[in-house]
Amino acid sequence: MTTALEPDAISLPPLAPPAVAEMEELYSGVCEVRTFELLTSDLYRDGAIPGFVHVSLGQEGSAVGACHALRVSDMITSNHRGHGHCLAKGMQPEAMFAELFGRATGAVEGRGGSMHIADPTLGILGANGIVGAGLPIAVGAAHAARTRGDDVVVAFFGDGAVAQGVFHEAVNLAALWSLPVVFFCENNGYAEFTAAADGHPATLRERAAGYGLPYLEIDGADVWAVADRMARVVDGVRHGSGPVVVEAMTDRWHGHYEGDQQQYRDTDDLRRARSTDPVTRAEDRLRELGVSDERITALREAATESVTAAAERAKAAPEPLAADAGRYVTAPRPEVVEQKPAADAAPVKYIEGIRTALSDALDDDPLAFLAGIDVAAGGGVFAVSRGLHARHPDRVLDTPISEAAVLGLGVGGAMAGLHPVVEIMYLDFIGVAFDQLLNQAAKLHFMTAGRASMSMTVRTQFGAGRSAGSQHSQSLEVLLAHIPGLTVVMPSTAADAYGLLRSAIDDPNPVVYIENRTLYGRRSPAAPRGHRVPIGRARIAREGTDVTVVSYSRMVLECLEVAERLAGEGIDVEVVDLRTISPWDRETVLASVRKTSRLVVVHEAVTDFGVGGEIVSTVVGEAFWALDGPPQRVGAGFSPAPYAPPLETAWLPQHADIERAIRATLEPFS
Q1: Catalytic: which of 472, 515, 614, 659?
Q2: What confidence tens digit (pLDDT) does each residue in 372-409 have?
Q3: Is 301 a catalytic residue?
Q4: In which domain, by residue range, is 406 found?
Q5: Cα–Cα distance measured from residue 296 to residue 287, given in angstroms and rounded to the nearest whole number
Q6: Is there a single domain that holds both residue 401 and residue 302?
Q7: Model pTM greater than 0.70?
Q8: CA 216 distance to own-chain centroid
C-alpha cells in the first residue's frame, strides 16, 4: 500500500544503481533530445525553420527522466521550450521536424510550430506559448484522469511561471481536490532575461508548503536521478497521494530564444552551465555500470543518425495547401432537429429552462460535469443550479474564486474526454481569465489539427438595468464572437434557454452560453425534454412585411413589445431572434431583409464596433439593392454602465429608441 506523501517531507531511499538496459534506454533518450535540439538550432540559424524557436539544450535529463515512468495514457502539458518533453513522451522526431518546417506532415499539420506541438493520442496535450497556461489545463486533465481511471498528469513549467497567477490558482485547486498531478518545474535559473534570484522573494519549496503540498528537489542534469525519483512520485500520485511539486535544478545553455545573445549572463555563469552536461552525466553512469566506451558511442551514434535522417525526410515533405488555411477552426457540429414548444405547453421561468437543461444533461451524459464558484452547495449566486448537487454530488462541484483555474478545468477536462460545463459568475469576470478562452479553448482544436477534443461549455450571465454598475453589467458578446473557434449563444426564452444549453453541452466546440439575469423570472412555454436548438440558426419571433428587426437575448422581448404597438398603426415588423451570435445566421437575416427591404439591429451592448455593425455591413454588402431605407442600429451609449437608475436608463436602449429607429428606416434614402 502506498503511503501518502507528507507536505515538504518526501522521504525517498538512497539512489540505487540502475539496471544496464534501463540506463541505456535513458541515455539514448537524452542523446535523441540533444541531437534534435542541436539540429533545430542550426536549421533555425540557416533559415530553414520560420517563427520563434526555444531549445532545451542543457535540460535533456529532466525531460527524459520525468517522462520515463509515464504510460501512454498519462498526460503532460508543456511550455514554449517543449521539444524534449514531446520526444520523451513518445512523439516521433520526423513529425516534430516536419512541424518546425511547417510541413503538411507535421505533428499538427503546420498549425502549431515549435511552441505548439501536441498529440493528445500520446497524452501530449500541447506545448504552450503562454507562460504558465498549461498549469490549469493540467488540473482539468487530472480531474478527468481521476474520474475515468488512474492516469497521472505531469505539468511542465519553468521557474518564471511561478510568478503567474495561474500557477497559484492551479496548484490551489489541485491541492484542494487532491488531484493526480505532478507540478514539474524545470528551474534553469532564468525567466527569459531575468535571473530567478531577481524574480522570486520565496522559494518553490516555501510556496509548495504554503499549499500543503509535498516538495521534492532533484538534480535535473542526472537523468537517472530524475527517472528514479519521478517513478516513485508518480506511483504515489497514481495511487491517491495527491499532487506533488517537483523542482528539477537544471541549466539553459542557449538564450531564451534562438538568436538571444544572452548579454545578461556573465562568462562564468555560461561556463558553469555547460559543465553540467546531462549527456556526459549519463555516460558516466553507464561507465560505472561497466558499459564500454564502444557501446556508449554506438548508442549515441544510433540516436544521432536516427534523428538526422528524420530531419532530412521531414524537410522533403510537402507544404500544406493554402486552401486548408481555415481548416479545423471548429469541429463539425451534430445535426439537430428542432422541436418547437407545444402551443399548450405550460409556461416556465427562464431560470427553470436552464436548471432543467443542466439536470437533464447530467442525467443523460455521464461525461458531463458542472463546476464553478458556489454552484454546488449554494446553488449559484442566482440559484440557477439549486438542487443539482444533491442529485449529482460527484459532478456538481464548487471551486475557489479562481476564474483561470475554472476555465482551465474546462479546457483540460475537455481535452481529456469529459464534457465540462464551467460557470463564470458574471460575464464581466471573463477578463480575469481571458487567456484560457482566447488562447487555449478557442485555438487548441485548430492548433492540434483537430486532434484535441474541446467539448466545453462556459455558462455566464449579464444584464443591465439593475444598478449593478460598470463591472457587473457589461454585454461583452462581441468581444468573444470576434475570436475564431469560440461559439457564442444568447437565448431569450425558456425553451431556447433549455434547447441551446443542451446543444452547447453536446457540441464538440467551446461554447460560451450567456444568460440574461433580468430574464430569470420571465415565463414562456416550456421545452419538451431532450429539446435541442440548432446552434447557428435564428428564429422568426414575429413575422412581418415592412421592417426586419434583428435582436437577441432580452432585447428580443423589448422589440416584440414595440412591434405589437406599431402594428396598431399598420407598421408590420418582423422580429428575428439571432439566438447564436457566432456563428450568426446570415441566411435567415438576409432572407428577411429581402422580404421587408428594411433593417434595424437592436442589442443591449454598446453600439460602436458591435454585432449590429457586423450585421449591417453584411446586409449592405450582400443585399444592398433590396434595401429601401437606411439600416439602423440601436444599442447602449459608448460608456461604461452607470450606477444611478436615471443614468442607467438613459444609457440603455429603450422602447422609444427602438421605435425611432424603425420609423427612420421607413424613410427612403435621401
Answers
A1: 472
A2: 999 999 999 999 999 999 999 999 999 999 999 999 99
A3: no
A4: 347-525
A5: 9
A6: no
A7: yes
A8: 29
